[in-house]
Here is the input.
Amino acid sequence: MINELKSRFRESYGANPSVITIAPGRVEVIGNHTDYNQGPVIGAAIDRSVMVALRRTEEPIFKFSSAGSAVVKIADPVKPQNGQASWINYPLGVYNALIRRGLEPEGGFEMSVESDVPSGAGLSSSAALELAAGKAMSEAYGVGLDSYNLALASREAENEFVGVPCGILDQGVSAFGKAGHLVYIDCRDFEFSTIPIGDEFSIWIFNTHKKHSLLESMYSKRHEECHEAVAQLKAAGLDITCLADVSPEQFEERKSALDSVVSKRAEHVIYEIDRVKRVQEYLKNGESAAVGKLLFASHASSRDQFGNSVEELDYLVKILESLPEVIGARLTGGGFGGAVMALAGEAFTASYAESVASAYRGMFGEAPEVIECHIADGVRVLESRLGAPSY
Here is the structure.
């Protein structure tokens, strides 16, 4: 991929880039809808990534190119773009976030992008683009941001410039990813750590490409129901500000005071937070079988308590659960359609994945997209010619 990127950069701009960076996509391993309830979440950086090549220029013009578009030129990096050029809002948003962190906005730059992160599979190509672009800018402009501040700047870009109210999971995992490790994020305090899992595991994504017709409204409804759960639990005597403040024991003592639907939503989030913490401990102790049980339990809770699964995802998890080579499986991301992730050992091969896809095809008439991933490192510089001639 790096050779294609260099070639595109030279074809687009007639010069070599000064810096080339890479940032991975990510998978949510466990922590379904815990982030905006200020709980923890665990994710994995994967070996599908976005690469960015960049060179600063004296002329205050910003140029972008990718496999899917010709060179886009703009003179106002503060103004969001529309239409086919809207993809450049991710690096533009990061550029503006870096200005608030010390970047001196002199001149412009040329940027080319290459990606092998499948779109629409919930692997967060947007965060990977933000992190790779931010790392390239940080290096080229001498800002020197660490992974923590780069993750925060990228999330700020997506929230404020792009206008997507995402949590810190995507950017945090892409920033702090490490081969052979999962990334644990405390979403209340924005604390990041890695948990060793080893190199013998792979992550398989089964993307149904199914989306509920009321996806956005249902996602917003779950937000509202979680907020209402906090209000009802406070009325029942708990001194809390979010669902992450509530232990399973406290919930069990007071759940009868909640409306039935709100109670189910709260139960999912509160016990999901507990599952994330238990997965962290099991991983530290090398108890992968126990981790797998919690992944399956997470999906069951999403299906029965939070109501954000669909028939297609449930079927995939059921098939995967029947295979001894699969450690655990669950829906990944917001739900209401989308994809299932499976954590598997070395014995799970492409032939097993095809058998799952074949069974799904027999039930629903078309096969899911199957993506094999391995746990990878986070954002980093691949090449740098800073200070060297760019011709």
The radius of gyration is 22 Å.
